[in-house]
Amino acid sequence: MPLRPVEFHILLALAGEECHGYAILQEVAALTDGELQLEPGTLYRALHRMLRDGWVVESARRPAPDLDDERRRYYRITALGTAVAKAEARRLAQLVRMARARGLAPEKA
User: Fold this and answer.
1) Fewest C-beta in 10 Å: which of 8, 12, 54, 79?
2) d(Cα 13, Cα 18) in Å, to the nearest integer?
3) Rounded mean pLDDT of 42-59?
4) Could you tell me the pLDDT band of residue 86, with boundaries at 50, 70 and 90?
5) Radius of gyration of the chain (CA)
6) CA 37, CA 59: separation in Å to the nearest integer?
């Protein structure tokens, strides 16, 4: 802790459903209203670290063959990855509470 922002965004994207790499890129862009556009190299380096650390795994499930490209790898968040993402969300929420207390962040809308 703290997580790299790219790792947190990938975990957020995978919290919704299993995704292949390009879908993760699209989901991160959608979640951030286009403010974060991950480069493929950045994504795959982060996924490699996250696979090694047990936060994500490659999924054995595949869509129907006519909807799939066999070269794609699908990823899903693990229980450990979910716990790591929750801990990071708590850490960030605490930072925002401290910033509000010091007048550095707007009050809740």
Assistant:
1) 79
2) 9
3) 97
4) very high
5) 16
6) 24
